[in-house]
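User: Before I run my own analysis I want an independent prediction to cross-check against. Here's the chain; please return only the structure tokens and, at the end, one sentence I can use as a sanity check.
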Amino acid sequence: MPQRKNDSPSRDDADLVASLLARIDQLVHRSPPRDERIDELLAQVKAQNSRIAELEAKLGGRRRRRAIPRWPPSRGQKANAEPPAKE
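Assistant: Structure tokens:
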């Protein structure tokens, strides 16, 4: 990347801007490995999505859920228990 110039009137400002531009250039040079990793992760997500679609197709296109009772067996009236006695 070509060296950048700045038009700051003050020398202190010029030094600050120059250091910030240098830091930006350093960060820009780090981008390619990050971009490659993002591309790898996107490829993994696409592969997993296709695998999920394949497995869902084997199930008939719908998700099967196990029937879970709303209340655990310890709550509510028991089928084989006598109703509570009235006093």
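Sanity check: Residues 11-58 form the longest helix (48 residues).
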